[in-house]
Specification:
Blueprint: H1 2-22, E1 41-46, H2 56-70, E2 75-80, H3 82-90, E3 95-99, H4 108-123, E4 129-137, E5 143-151, H5 172-247
Parallel strand pairs: 1-2, 1-4, 2-3
Antiparallel strand pairs: 4-5
Helix pairs in contact: 1-5, 2-3, 4-5
Length: 248
C-alpha cells in the first residue's frame, strides 16, 4: 500500500511545480506557499500505539525530541500514536491535538482531520512552519527516521523531461487553490502510511528475533536439564553399586 501510493504523491508534486511555474510573477499564489518570519513551529510526530516493534518508536521520539530542543521559538505538537503522545505529555510539551487508534490500513479520509489541524493553525498564523517526524519505510529490515517540512510548501524545482504545456480550467489560480490543501493532505497521508509499514515490518522482525531467542533458550535449558538428570542417574547408580559392594 505504501509503495503503490508513492507514484501518486510524486506526480502530485510534479503538478504542483507546473502550476506554480505557470503562476510565476504573481505575488503569492496561495497562503500555504507563503514564507514568513518564524515565531512558532508546528511538529507532527507519528509513532505507533503499541510497543513490541524494536527501537522504532524510541528512534522517532528521539529525533522529534532533538528537533524540538533545537528550535529557538515555541513549538506546538500534533501527535499520531499513543507512544509519542505519552512521551511528549510526560515531558510537558505543548500538545495541541492527538490522534490514536488509526487502523493498520488507513484511508485518506481517516487522516484528513490531522491535515486540517495543521492547515488551519498555519492559515490563522498560529504556526509559521510545520514539520513531520516519522519513520520512512525502506525495506522489511530498514526503517529510517525522517524529518520533512510540510508547510510552507517548498517551490518544486523544474523537473527534467519533455516540456508539456497544460491548459488548466477554469484557470491555474483556481486549480492551485484546490490543489495545495489536497497536496498537504496527501503528504500527511503518505507519512502515516510510511509509519504504518515501518511499524509492521519492525514488529515482524522483533517477533521473529524473540522467537529465535526463545528457541535458543529452550535448547540451552533442555541441554542443562538432560545433563542434570544424567548426573543424578549416575550418582544413584554409583550409590547402589557401593551399597551392594559393601553388603558383599
Amino acid at each position: 500500500m505504501v509503495v503503490s501510493s508513492r507514484p501518486y504523491s510524486t506526480k502530485m508534486r510534479e503538478l504542483m511545480g507546473d502550476v506554480t511555474a505557470t503562476l510565476a510573477g504573481s505575488e503569492v499564489p496561495h497562503p500555504l506557499l507563503e514564507k514568513r518570519e518564524v515565531r512558532q513551529v508546528g511538529v507532527l510526530v507519528i509513532t505507533a500505539d503499541r510497543g513490541l516493534c524494536g527501537g522504532l518508536n524510541s528512534s522517532v521520539i528521539r529525533h522529534a525530541a532533538g528537533f524540538v530542543l533545537d528550535q529557538k521559538v515555541p513549538v506546538k505538537l500534533v501527535t499520531v500514536g499513543r507512544k509519542g503522545r505519552d512521551w511528549m505529555i510526560r515531558r510537558g510539551q505543548n500538545v495541541i491535538a492527538e490522534f490514536i487508534q488509526l487502523t493498520d490500513r488507513p484511508s485518506l479520509a481517516d487522516t484528513t482531520a490531522i491535515s486540517h489541524v495543521l492547515i488551519d493553525e498555519y492559515l490563522r498564523g498560529e504556526i509559521d512552519e510545520v514539520y513531520a517526524v516519522f519513520s520512512r519505510f525502506v525495506s522489511t529490515l530498514v526503517q529510517r527516521p525522517t524529518i520533512e517540512r510540510l508547510l510552507p510548501i517548498e517551490p518544486v524545482a523544474e523537473l527534467a523531461g519533455p516540456n508539456v504545456e497544460y491548459i488548466y480550467e477554469p484557470g491555474p489560480a483556481a486549480v492551485l487553490d484546490q490543489l495545495v490543501p489536497r497536496f498537504v493532505e496527501i503528504q500527511v497521508y503518505q507519512a502515516i502510511l510510511e509509519s504504518k509499514a515501518s511499524e509492521q515490518s519492525a514488529r515482524m522482525v522483533a517477533m521473529r528475533n524473540a522467537t529465535e531467542n526463545a528457541q535458543e533458550i529452550i535448547g540451552d535449558l533442555t541441554l542443562s536439564y538432560n545433563r542434570a538428570r544424567q548426573a543424578s542417574i549416575t550418582t544413584e547408580i554409583t550409590e547402589i553399586s557401593a551399597g551392594a559392594e559393601a553388603l558383599a
